[in-house]
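Worked Example 4.2. Consider the chain below.
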Amino acid sequence: MPTRLPGQLQYGPHSRLKRRSAFERGVAALRQYVEREQRVVVPRGHEERLPDGRTVRLGVWLSNAKSRREGLEEAQLAELAGLGLPWAAVVV
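Applying the procedure from the previous section yields the following structure tokens:
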């Protein structure tokens, strides 16, 4: 088994699960923020605490999601568009 250095990316089925889990946390944080603030504009430095106590760096997460939207699945984009993000709307 190859040795992985700290900070080195790992690819494979487990990394895919981690990305999906991170996406789900981000969506939960965004949903909570939108319900409370009634808007989807999130300051880049904003952090959102989820009910389970975990903190999501929501502003950074949104910025990354937007810049990496080509790599998101259609269902993920649809979920973000459903929360009011126009850049996530799937163009057919």
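The first strand starts at residue 48 and ends at 49. Residues 13-88 form one domain. Compare this with Example 4.1 before moving on.
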